Amino acid sequence: MSGRNRSILRRTALLLVALLALAALAACRREPPPTEQPPEPQAQAHTELRDAIQAPQEQAKAVEDTLQQGADAQRAQIDAAEGG
After folding, report:
1. Average pLDDT for residues 44-72, to the nearest whole number?
2. Are 44 and 50 a contacting pair, CB within 8 Å?
3. Is the pLDDT of residue 55 over 90?
4. Phi, psi dihedral angles at 20 (to 5 degrees)
5. Secondary structure of residue 84 in the 3-state scheme
6. For residues 66 and 61, what is the distance between their CA atoms, to the nearest angstrom?
7. Burial, 71: exposed, middle or buried (Cβ in 10 Å; 0-12, 13-18, 19+)?
């Protein structure tokens, strides 16, 4: 092989490597195509565990609301007694 052929071969190989690297980078950055419709949510067949967790939380919230109403009423009575 002559020196000129080797130079052309090296340039071609270098260009090919550069193109492959660019193609690999472009493939990594592609986002999946958007779907037309989101998937349907799955129906929850077993809700016992969720209900068992939420029941005490709901009860505590109800107690908190009752206590807050009592505190507000007491504050109103105190303010009324003070003449405010």
Report:
1. 90
2. yes
3. yes
4. -65, -40
5. coil
6. 9
7. exposed
User: Is 44 a residue whose pLDDT tops 70?
Assistant: no
pTM metric for this prediction: 0.41
Tell me the per-residue pLDDT of 66-80, one tens digit each, with 9 for 90 and over: 999 999 999 999 999
Query: Which single residue is written with the structure tokens 């052309």?
Result: 8
Q: For tokens 């009860």, name the residue.
A: 59
Task: Kindly report the length of the chain.
Answer: 84
| DSSP codes, 1-65 | --HHHHHHHHHHHHHHHHHHHHHHHHHHHPPPPPPSSPPPPPP-S--HHHHHHHHHHHHHHHHHH
